Amino acid sequence: MLLFFKEKLEKDGVLYLKIKVRPNAAISRVKEIMADETIKVDIAAPAEKGKANRALVGFLAEEFRVRKSEVNIISGAGEKLKLIKIITA
Question: Which of 8, 38, 61, 64 would be a feasible disulfide site paired with 18, CB 3.0-4.6 Å?
Fold first, then answer.
């Protein structure tokens, strides 16, 4: 499902993603990609004390095969809609 974004990251070395997060899900997974390329992601962590954000960073790092330090929440840390920057070193 994320193949287009993975190829873009591989080509450009940097990727910006709009992510809509649903915390407290049963499992962490990509749920869908909307028409405007916003990615809906279910996260199996509560939205308290940054737990969902940390889980999202870990999930994206695993999906894109990068280190957690290469995944940054640029905006929306306290919101469901987030802007994420992924870089490859």
Answer: 38
